[in-house]
Design brief:
The chain has about 180 residues and is mostly beta strands. It is about 15% helix and about 45% strand.
């Protein structure tokens, strides 16, 4: 691991990818943020494990990710907010059905006022974010984008048979 983030390569295990053509998917993740720097995340329990993550939605090729993000904000919280693109992530996941290529555009949504919150939604100061409850890959890139003023571009390779970011990260490259 290098001290500088640009060009860093974190190899955690050997990849074991299938050779099939990838199934391409597109998603946005929205991280509502208040003036004090706190981030709104959602927490839920799956198979007895607590998971904390941002908010998002899949979309079709050709759709505008920023419009999808604004729609999610309106639908989830009843608000509009200024969006700042924080990251462009490309996940490659080896699944039993073949390779999945998932592109995620991550936005900070600068929130003023009081969004509509549901029981599983919580504000976290950056120092209190429960990274150990996040999918492994999210726990790697989220602390980076919270500290970086510029756009993060990263490639993440995940090997697992389950949820798209729940598996073992085998490579994480920041460019």
């Amino acid at each position: 691991m290098k001290d500088s983030l640009n060009g860093s390569l974190f190899v955690l295990d050997k990849p074991t990818y299938t050779q099939a053509m990838p199934d391409k998917r597109y998603s946005v993740m929205i991280l509502p943020r208040r003036n004090d720097g706190s981030i709104l995340l959602q927490t839920w329990t799956k198979e007895g494990k607590t998971i904390t993550d941002g908010f998002g939605s899949f979309f079709q090729p050709g759709d505008d990710p920023e419009q999808i993000a604004q729609h999610e904000l309106t639908e989830q919280f009843g608000i509009k907010a200024d969006l700042t693109q924080a990251a462009q992530l490309q996940y490659f996941m080896d699944k039993p059905t073949g390779l999945v290529d998932l592109k995620i555009t991550v936005y900070f949504a600068d929130v003023t006022g009081n969004p509509i919150l549901q029981e599983q939604m919580h504000w976290f100061a950056p120092s209190d974010i429960p990274y150990s409850q996040m999918h492994e890959a999210t726990g790697k890139w989220l602390p980076i984008i919270l500290k970086m003023p510029e756009l993060l571009t990263a490639t993440i390779k995940v090997a697992q048979p389950g949820h798209h970011t729940a598996g073992k990260v085998i490579e994480f490259t920041v460019s």
